[in-house]
Design goal:
Layout lengths: L3 E4 L3 E5 L5 E6 L2 E4 L4 E4 L3 H18 L6 E6 L2 E5 L2 E12 L2 H7 L6 E11 L8 E2 L1 H7 L4 H24 L2 E13 L2 E5 L7 E5 L9 H4 L5 H13 L3
Antiparallel strand pairs: 1-2, 2-3, 3-7, 4-5, 6-7, 8-9, 8-11, 9-10, 11-12, 11-13
Helix pairs in contact: 1-6
Length: 234
C-alpha cells in the first residue's frame, strides 16, 4: 500500500508511482459546516468519483487542464501531484446558501451576472472570503495566478452550465481548487454534488449536498440521479 500523504474530510491522498503523481481515494464520509456535521453514506465515494471523473474528462476535452490522469478503480484515481493553492474559487450563478444570508438576496434569485469569489482554504479560519490584494499581500498566490484562476473559473462555469442544462439541471454555484504543476495552473480536487449546488430545472429539487446540510434526506438518491443524467447526456 502506498504511503498516505494526506487525509482529508472526504478523500485520502497516497504517494504515487513517482514524484509526479498521487493516488486519490474517495471516502464515503459526508461532512458539512467545516466538518461539524458528519455521516458515513456507503457508496457516496464511488458516486462522487464517477461524477467528478465524468466532468473532468468533459472539461479536458474542452481545453481545461485537470489533475486527472486515469481511474484506478471505482473510488480512486491517479492524479498529477500538484501544489495546491490555498485559495478556493467560488462561482455563483444564482443566489443561495451563505450568499443569500449575507447579502439579503432571496434564495433562487438569478444573478444579473455570475460572481467569482475567493476564500482562504482553511477549516480553522472558517474559509473566510478574501480579496485579490489580500491574497497577494499574504503570499497565497500571485496576481497572475489569480487572474488565470479567475479566467479558468469563468470558462469552467460556461462549460458546466451547458452540460448541466442539457440534462435538466440548473447549476446554482460551485467551488473550485487549483494547483501548480510544471509551471502551470491546473484544476484539482473534484467537481461533484459535494462541491456544487444543483437544482432540477422546473422543480428546484435539490440534487446536491444541501440534502445533507438541511436534513432533506435521500442524499445518495440525489447523487445517483445526477450521475444517471450525466451518463445519458446527448
Amino acid at each position: 500500500m502506498e504511503r498516505i500523504l494526506y487525509v482529508g474530510k472526504t478523500k485520502v491522498i497516497y504517494e504515487g508511482a513517482d514524484d509526479k503523481t498521487v493516488t486519490i481515494g474517495y471516502k464515503d464520509t459526508t461532512t458539512a459546516f467545516n466538518g461539524e456535521k458528519k455521516q458515513e453514506l456507503i457508496g457516496k465515494g464511488k458516486l462522487n468519483a464517477a461524477i467528478s471523473n465524468f466532468i473532468y474528462k468533459y472539461l479536458t476535452e474542452n481545453g481545461i487542464e485537470t489533475h486527472l490522469i486515469e481511474e484506478v478503480d471505482t473510488s480512486s484515481i491517479t492524479a498529477k501531484r500538484a501544489e495546491i493553492i490555498q485559495v478556493e474559487v467560488i462561482v455563483r450563478n444564482v443566489a443561495a446558501g451563505c450568499f443569500s444570508a449575507k447579502y439579503g438576496v432571496p434564495e433562487g434569485t438569478e444573478l444579473r451576472n455570475s460572481t467569482v469569489e475567493f476564500c482562504i482554504k482553511s477549516d480553522t479560519l472558517g474559509d473566510p472570503m478574501v480579496n485579490a490584494s489580500q491574497i497577494t499581500a499574504i503570499g497565497l498566490a500571485t496576481a497572475d495566478e489569480l487572474n488565470e484562476m479567475s479566467q479558468m473559473a469563468v470558462k469552467i462555469n460556461e462549460l458546466l452550465c451547458e452540460l448541466f442544462t442539457n440534462v435538466g439541471i440548473r447549476l446554482i454555484d460551485f467551488k473550485l481548487e487549483f494547483g501548480r504543476y510544471d509551471g502551470r495552473i491546473i484544476l484539482c480536487d473534484e467537481i461533484s454534488p459535494d462541491s456544487c449546488r444543483l437544482w432540477e430545472i422546473g422543480t428546484d429539487r435539490k440534487l446536491d449536498k444541501d440534502r445533507f446540510r438541511r436534513d432533506l434526506g435521500n442524499v445518495l438518491g440525489a447523487y445517483k440521479e445526477v450521475l444517471r443524467r450525466l451518463e445519458n447526456v446527448k
